[in-house]
Amino acid sequence: MLTKTKIYLSSPHMGGSEQKFVKEAFDTNWVAPLGPNVDGFEKEIQHYLGNNSQVAVLSSGTAAIHIALQLLGVSKGDEVLCQSFTFSASANPIIYQGAAPVFIDSESDTWNISPELLEIAIKDRIEKYKKPKAIIAVHLYGMPYKANEINAISRKYEIPVIEDSAEAFGSNYYNTACGTLSDIGVLSFNGNKIITTSGGGALITSNLDLKTKAVFLSTQARDNKPHYEHSSIGFNYRMSNVLAGIGRGQMEVLDERVAARRNNFNFYKKNLSKYKSISFLEEPDGFFSNRWLTCIKTSSFELREQLRLALLEEDIESRPLWKPMHMQPVFKDCLHFADGTSEELFERGLSLPSGSNLNQEDLDRILNIISKTPNL
Ligand SMILES: *Cc1c(COP(=O)(O)O)cnc(C)c1O
To answer: In the record, what terms sit under GO molecular function (predicted)?
Structure first.
């Protein structure tokens, strides 16, 4: 009997030349968190992003957010505003710094941080003598947040923005690359992301001094002395030269990966839009999403679960949308400014298989299961 293979939500997709770069690292014995692949990968990302970006590649996107908070001087007792509808890694580093997250709900055009709620929160915190130290905004699922509005608020109240672009490498906003729209940007190269180094991340800034400081902090904060001298606390967060080799291979196919993911989205939309119980997130004018994951919003929790379980039955992985941080047990005591938008998305939303390595047969198989679901 023919057994069907499992279809994953988003699995690694190698381009072909990754092993050449990894082999070079071995052949030249650059098996360390520095070397030509680290330099090369950083230059290639800088070239791709443009906009005067300076890039430091690190061990993960989470590490990049942690370093970004340190660069902005976030420390014990501070408050940091953070998009609630996101993966927990956006918020966890706030706690690493001994600071407190204040969660902000999303708006319905992009599913990202609401400028209105953000400003309400800032006014409230300033009134209570707790002016926030930073804003963490997220281009969730690859869709850019409303950067003009968020940057205007950032300037008005002089609060810097950390741009969590972990899911949005290859996305852009009015032709400016996501990751370069704010004070400090963050990328992730985790195994499920649009390109991967198995694990890894990057910090992006237009300020070379900040990049230098990020590299300093992520390589144990060693002062410039012949012996080991330390005047600040450092971290071991630099990317390995071996993994940067995988990244260099992946950079060669990034645009193809974006095209393939957008193709998945268009396929699902073309074939599922006829069902009134399913809707898709459109790109507002000037917004370009890499469509990292194709997400649908269904008409009810029951239908969402019916779809998810029908796919699971056929060994097809799908997943409810991110559970908002203000609903997470670990953050239950944190302040939040919410209006129900992300709670509804969590209740009724589903991410469909979205890998760039899905073939037409896979997509047809998924569509067939969804289309057979009663009460669509
Ligand atoms: C993946 C992800 C991160 C963390 O990146 P890692 O490289 O896995 O540490 C942060 N924020 C968002 C929104 C993510 O999806």
So the answer is: transaminase activity
Confirm or reject: Cβ of 281 under 6 Å from ligand 1: no
Which ligand 1 atom sits closest to the C-alpha of 63?
9
**Residues 6+ away with beta carbon under 8 Å from 238:** 33, 34, 38, 57, 58, 59, 215, 218, 219
What separation in Å is there between the alpha carbon of 323 and the centre of ligand 1? Answer: 15
Bridge partners (DSSP) listed for residue 201: 58, 188
Q: How far apart are alpha carbons 131 and 154 in whole angstroms?
A: 12
The pTM of this model reads 0.97
Report residue 352 as tokens.
């469909």
Domains and CATH numbers, the chain: 18-251 (3.40.640.10), 254-371 (3.90.1150.10)
Question: How far is it, in rounded angstroms, from Cα 358 to Cα 254?
Answer: 16
Pocket lining: 64 vs ligand 1, CB cutoff 6 Å? no
89 lines ligand 1 (CB under 6 A): yes
Look over the chain and give the mean of its residue pLDDT values, rounded to a whole number.
97
